[in-house]
Amino acid sequence: MTYSQPAGPWRFGLLLLGNTALALGPLFVRLADTGPVAAGFWRLALALPLIALLAWREGGAAKLPERIVLWLALAAGVAFGLDVASWHLGIEMTRIGNSTVFGNSGSVIVIGWGLLLARRAPYNSEMLAILTALVGAGLLMSGSLEISTNNFIGDLFCILAGLLYAVYILLLRHVRGKMGSWRLLLVSSIAATPTLLACALLLGEVIMPRDWTPLLLLSFCSQIVGQGILVWALGWFRPLVIGLALLTQPAVAALSGWIAFGETLSAGDVLGMALMATALVIARVAEPKEPKVPAGI
Predict the structure, then answer these.
(1) Structural domain count, the chain
(2) pTM as predicted
(3) What single-letter DSSP state applies at residue 145?
């Protein structure tokens, strides 16, 4: 994938907006009266018509991509479906802030993969950003270290989700330059939607909601705004910035958990949020000013 020009401030702002929208997802999952995995199914299913319309407007009657590209996009969708299923199960079993920290733990893999493709060690400014973000994330997730079986199981589900999300992001990065962002999101969503429905049915969850409001908000914020911007941003930002942006989601999630459910924010939580915001600023300042061409993407 080739970045045609440096990403301007407005694109960086959109990336932050997308991550904020994604971070609100756990709040709506808890408010939904379906099972957590079923909520993930509706998140995608409700968004599919609009995504299909946007994909059609983006590419019109464009020919199908190469078969390998299509299969990679479908594989990314299956990984995303399993990621959402695992994450939504974890959301029900741990704190909202912790679920988002662990659910985005795969961002470390994304950062490492980007450096591996670039065939270099991180620059000093990049290493400072990474270490600052990891310390901040560690402070935010310290609440999960309590001796609690429920927290432990929920955290494991969210860690699995983080690994699956890294697979999803890395697969999309390899095909993003060969498909428009909305077409790519459409193909991956088509694969993810039945995956989530199958998981929800196997778990015996309640599928049909009585109140559609939380699910509509979940679909709009997480799938259309959040995933739509994220897939688009893959064409503009290096893995380091994408990975660190994903790590800012716990700050928003912790704030939403405090506002909606009264989950306590400790001094460590607040410091962790500040450190993660600082890390993203450092990464942004360290962005190369000339066009970037990552190797092997």
Answers:
(1) 1
(2) 0.76
(3) G
